[in-house]
Design goal:
113 residues, alpha+beta, Aminopeptidase, four-stranded mixed sheet, 38% helix, 28% strand
Amino acid sequence: MGIKEKAFHNREVSDEGFLDWAFTNRQKGYDLFLWGEGLEALGYIDSIVGKWGVDYIAGIYVNPAYRNQGIGEALMERALDRFLVGDCHKAQLEVFADNKGAISFYFRLSSER
């Protein structure tokens, strides 16, 4: 399963639809950072700056074959750095309770900060 299917919660989406979502049809304050190697996208983080009074991580994904190599941490750092530019006082994210890998990742990051 590729990065674009993960961005759309496992629904099929055309390359054009993904590119429109990722780069063309972005609302102000909505940022998407991609991590790639060559022409292959290995991960992304989707964030919202200043929405609802807080900055929000809307989604993060790293291809399973490339996890535990610092990509997720680098993507989170990029989003958090962007939040600080906008004078962020609170960053928020949500994770499904059964996503043990993500929960472990977030706890590890929070203990390092």
